[in-house]
């Protein structure tokens, strides 16, 4: 879909503004958001939209589309300002009932490092004024959890354990080292569930992560696939974790994680796979030898920041496409793990673990792995996803428990408890 009255040229106008307060106050129930703390932006309206599109096609289309936009700005060179496109992609389009999308919004209200702005797109004269503030989102009514006639079959705990053990048998045969499996929890609300409510709950409870809202997909992720700014790129890779911290033994748990040989090997495989995917697109790249410990509300993670300079002509979206799918959400080796997921996995992954993010007219932008996702459908159906990694040394029962903890946490947030 492209909104275009005749041959009139599209214009974008960006104005610096005083701090507008909470950005979510401007968000309507069909808008988009990428937020971390006070930074980020919300987006409203649609000037153009692509559905069921590949990352390569979306990248080429945006390159051509953005080149035709007349851009006037009070904030030249400020990261994230001016015309942008945001989107979300499906993990495996051939095996999903969901579809990818790329959207060019009409209005963006943003804040980054204390600088605030509003960007508007339109035709002829464009006035970059703030949109109106919205009423607070209502909590969901009558949420019920579990399979039903409308949601179809959902794996029982025993069925999931059986599948886990079958896949672990393939690992024992040498088909792969690790496979990331999913569990799904389905809910239904009475009427439409406002995605802004879910965004609010995720923002309140997943500090340290980027929260996102795109087309009914709400989540929180600490994993930055690509942050490209002026040709400089940072990718934050997470793999290897332990359960939530707290108490006097926190320092000891951090030390144990940083010396855990199995988790360190798992993490290194994920980092090496990401570096291999990025290398053809980079002029130079630094890959640290050792990870650091990243503490999040739901656990402690091994993390590595891969830094480098992208070769000319490769956008943030192109770099994200080169990294997808990440080993941290798939397994290792990536292609072997992906093939096993295709043949043995029963859960439609939808947009779990796939790129979600934004790109500007210069090809800069941020793309994240869609983690802790909640998929909201128009008919009131809600799907929550949690992952667990199968390896030769893992217990199906232990991983069942760990995914249940994650699902229970999201379930509590969804109900406001």
From TrEMBL:
<feature type="region of interest" description="Disordered">
    <location>
        <begin position="129"/>
        <end position="157"/>
    </location>
</feature>
<feature type="domain" description="Chorismate-utilising enzyme C-terminal">
    <location>
        <begin position="157"/>
        <end position="397"/>
    </location>
</feature>
<protein>
    <submittedName>
        <fullName>Chorismate binding enzyme</fullName>
    </submittedName>
</protein>
<dbReference type="GO" id="GO:0009697">
    <property type="term" value="P:salicylic acid biosynthetic process"/>
</dbReference>
<dbReference type="InterPro" id="IPR005801">
    <property type="entry name" value="ADC_synthase"/>
</dbReference>
<dbReference type="GO" id="GO:0008909">
    <property type="term" value="F:isochorismate synthase activity"/>
</dbReference>
<dbReference type="Pfam" id="PF00425">
    <property type="entry name" value="Chorismate_bind"/>
</dbReference>
<dbReference type="InterPro" id="IPR015890">
    <property type="entry name" value="Chorismate_C"/>
</dbReference>
